[in-house]
């Protein structure tokens, strides 16, 4: 009987404040969708870091004839065969080095044409203007400075470049976007909490006569509060369910179908369905507990039971 009464009161409350309930559902859905999206964005960035940092190379660019007159690092002239042999031998001795690959001027020119063949500059370049280089795969990408210290400024070396620096800028941008999404999410959560509190208070005020009678007949504080708390929890759970739906639909249409980024951007290792599905229980739990707790504390002050 008591359970039936609580459930009937929940239905009455949701219908009586239909507009505000709808606002709560929408705000909770949007805020939790952003919450889940920010978690997935963090997973995506970490996945990309693990994938790309494992592939980054350190490049040692060697001096060519044109560099001897234009670059202070190559003031002693183009790299000699002895210098190239010594650089390679020293690299192979270093414990941080995994593999060493030599790229000749002809190979560098070929790769440039493949990547930038449509550039106006490509037609004016010749193989002898390209730089020979050693591409070093490190066992630990964080050990770039060891290579830079050992070879930067050495005779025959024009520069030492780390591809990780380029990736750091990219991941810095992605992390910045993720923090921006979290800021919007926090704002939406505050809005949702304010709506929940106001909805519960309006509902309690509209039923103040019933709650007063229940107080007089000796009903417990929890028994009086339960319908209001459950109303907020049900509205929140509906919003959380919608948020889960948003994430599933977004993953399906953005990555797998529709935009099909997984097919168009083969170089990016996208997160799988398992990453999305593991976030759904957290979103549903948050959608249930957050409104219930907000309603509980709002009612303690308002009803004073």
TrEMBL record:
One biological process term in Gene Ontology: cell division
Subcellular localization(s) per the UniProt record: Cell membrane
Annotated ABC3 transporter permease C-terminal domain residues: 183-301
Entry's transmembrane regions: 21-41, 179-200, 221-254, 280-299
Record keyword Zinc present: no
Membrane topology of the entry: Multi-pass membrane protein
Pfam families in the cross-refs: FtsX, FtsX_ECD
Domain FtsX extracellular: 56-160
UniProt keyword annotations, A-Z: Cell cycle, Cell division, Cell membrane, Membrane, Transmembrane, Transmembrane helix
Signal peptide: none
Origin superkingdom: Bacteria
GO CC terms of this entry: plasma membrane
Function in brief: Part of the ABC transporter FtsEX involved in cellular division.
NCBIfam families: FtsX_actino
Quaternary structure annotation from Swiss-Prot or TrEMBL: Forms a membrane-associated complex with FtsE.
Family note: Belongs to the ABC-4 integral membrane protein family. FtsX subfamily.
The name this protein goes by in its record: Cell division protein FtsX
Lineage: Bacteria, Bacillati, Actinomycetota, Actinomycetes, Kitasatosporales
């Amino acid at each position: 009987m008591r359970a039936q009464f609580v459930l009937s009161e929940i239905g009455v409350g949701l219908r009586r404040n239909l507009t505000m309930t709808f606002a709560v559902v929408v705000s909770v859905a949007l805020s939790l969708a952003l919450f889940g999206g920010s978690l997935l964005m963090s997973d995506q960035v970490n996945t990309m870091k693990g994938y790309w940092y494992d592939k980054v190379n350190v490049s040692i660019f060697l001096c060519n004839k044109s560099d001897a007159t234009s670059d202070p690092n190559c003031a002693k002239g183009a790299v000699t065969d002895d210098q190239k042999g010594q650089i390679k031998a020293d690299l192979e001795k270093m414990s941080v080095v995994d593999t060493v690959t030599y790229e000749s001027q002809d190979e560098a020119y070929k790769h440039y044409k493949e990547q930038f063949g449509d550039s106006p500059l490509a037609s004016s370049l010749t193989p002898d203007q390209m730089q020979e280089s050693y591409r070093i795969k490190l066992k630990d990408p964080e050990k770039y400075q060891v290579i830079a210290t050992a070879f930067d400024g050495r005779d025959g070396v024009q520069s030492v470049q780390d591809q990780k620096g380029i990736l750091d800028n990219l991941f810095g941008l992605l992390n910045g976007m993720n923090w921006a999404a979290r800021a919007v999410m926090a704002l939406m959560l505050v809005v949702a909490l304010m709506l929940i509190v106001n909805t519960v208070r309006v509902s309690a005020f509209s039923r103040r006569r019933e709650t007063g009678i229940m107080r007089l007949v000796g009903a417990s504080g929890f028994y009086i509060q339960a319908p209001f708390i459950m109303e907020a929890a049900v509205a929140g759970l509906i919003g959380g369910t919608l948020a889960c739906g948003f994430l599933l639909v977004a993953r399906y249409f953005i990555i797998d179908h529709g935009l099909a980024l997984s097919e168009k951007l083969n170089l990016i290792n996208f997160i799988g369905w398992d990453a999305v599905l593991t976030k759904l229980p957290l979103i549903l739990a948050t959608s249930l507990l957050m409104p219930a707790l907000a309603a509980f504390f709002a009612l303690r002050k308002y009803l004073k039971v």
